[in-house]
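Re: the request from the purification team.
They wanted to know what the chain is likely to look like in 3D before they choose a buffer screen. I agreed to run a prediction and write the result into the notebook, where they can find it.
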Amino acid sequence: MRARPDARLGPVPRPAPGRDSVVDQIGFETNLSVYGPFGGSGGDPFEFKLPIGAFVAGFHGSAAKLLDALGVLYYQDAPQ
């Protein structure tokens, strides 16, 4: 995925947390466009919304045979 420099990442859908949950499908939404969905046929919807003024720095996750957890690393500029 390549977004314009002025794009801001919005909700990051993933399955709801749970013992048997796996990340089956993912999509990204910015203030300018929608990317995806990518992956399987879906699953239980979940959204992560960035705090106002935050920027995505990266992603992290864990997996055994399948991706079962996904997180977003973000930063926020300190108020001046």
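For the purification team: The chain has a mean pLDDT of 75.
Please add any questions underneath this entry.
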